[in-house]
Amino acid sequence: MAFREYKLGAMFFGFALSFSMMITIFFPSMYITDHGAPNDYGMDKTLTYGRNSAFTYSDPLLKQTHEPVKAILKKDPVSGQPLADPMTVYIYRPGDAFPSTIVHPRVLTGDIANLSVNQGKIDAASESTGAVFTIAHATYKGKSLPYIENLTALKGWKPMQVFAAVPDSDRSYAAQGRTLFEREGCWWCHTLLPEETQDWETFGRPPLVGDLNGQSPTTFGSDRKAPDLLHVGSRNSSREWMIMHLFNPRLVQPHSIMPRYDYLWGTKDANGNTINFDKWRADYLAYASGKTVYPPAVPMPAKNSEARHLIDFLLDLK
Q1: Are 140 and 115 in contact, with CB atoms under 8 Å apart?
Q2: How many Å apart are CA 279 and CA 300, to the nearest integer?
Q3: How many Å apart are CA 33 and CA 107, to the nearest integer?
Q4: Among 56, 170, 148, 164, CA closest to 104
Q5: Other residues' Cβ atoms within 10 Å of the Cβ of residue 8
Q6: At what angle do helices 306-316 and 174-183 cross, to 10 degrees?
Q7: What angle do CA 223, 231, 305 make, to 5 degrees?
Q8: Which letter does DSSP use for residue 292 in this model?
Q9: Max Cα distance, the chain (Å)
Q10: pLDDT value, residue 4
Q11: How many domains does one find in the chain?
Q12: Distance between CA 267 and CA 296 in Å, rounded?
């Protein structure tokens, strides 16, 4: 009897272990492309973030290397003439890592993949020389479909040429900011996954499968100790508010438990002046204790600071 019970227990344990391994190994092998074609939103996010895979051999310390720049292009980078309609472009400078949708067009699924390769010429793009991409639309087999265009192959626009034609105010370093979102552990408290409950009313619609096609990782988050941020850029598009909130959350919410991220400012502000953190914190404590009426002014982050990158990412979440 004892041996039989032991044998049944061992069989049950073996089944449970096998099933768990199937979940771990087999299920992830099922292509997400088999269950949802990418939409405009998903393409935008994939091209914005590039091949962002958290800890990689190319960027083990998450220093935001080899990541693209999203930009609003308002003039022809070759002729300098204004464009009839400003266009959103995704600039991959030489060495920037392409997302899976460019490296493996199959990820884009059937008709969209065919359009992107045959009309968009994405298969002509090279990481070594870089490329400029945009999202276009075409009627294909009676359907209006989005697809990716390689403007470097179609128009001859070189990445650094386009980068130089865009002023800094029209550039978004959301890809670098997403890496910081992962590195700083923001996903420990904030999710990027509204649920199909009352979340619709507060945080916006839950993501569709096509929204995530090509993204790596998805950064859904591990817990929600703080508001969901998937559509935070639509709820709050104030860069000034984001600056205050990241520098010291207690400036906008006195009882916030969020840590300060003032160290992302570096040592210099937007004007090149050295930031005196000790004085700022002393002035803030005087304000918090009621000794002064107004809080100290928050320094504007430099355009190449990690703070600017993280804010660009948050404002791009729409």
Answers
A1: yes
A2: 16
A3: 6
A4: 148
A5: 10
A6: 100
A7: 85
A8: S
A9: 88
A10: 57
A11: 2
A12: 17
Residue 290 DSSP label: T
**Backbone phi, then psi, for 226, in 5-degree steps?**
-140, 170
Q: Give the Cα separation of 98 and 52 in Å (integer).
A: 9
What whole-number distance in Å separates Cα of residue 245 and Cα of residue 10? Answer: 54
Print the domain residue range for 215.
179-316
**Is residue 157 located within the same domain as residue 74?**
yes
Instruction: Give a yes or no: residue 242 inside a domain.
Output: yes
Q: Output Rg (C-alpha) for the chain, integer angstroms.
A: 23
- Do 251 and 216 lie in one domain? The reply is yes
Q: Which of 200, 251, 234 is nearest to 314 (CA)?
A: 234
Give me the sign of the Cα torsion angle 134, 135, 138, 140.
positive
Q: What is the pLDDT of residue 1?
A: 46
Contact by Cβ (8 Å): 124, 150: yes
Residue segments in the chain with a per-residue pLDDT below the cut of 50: 1
Token pair recorded at residue 165: 């034609």
Q: What is the pTM of this model?
A: 0.87
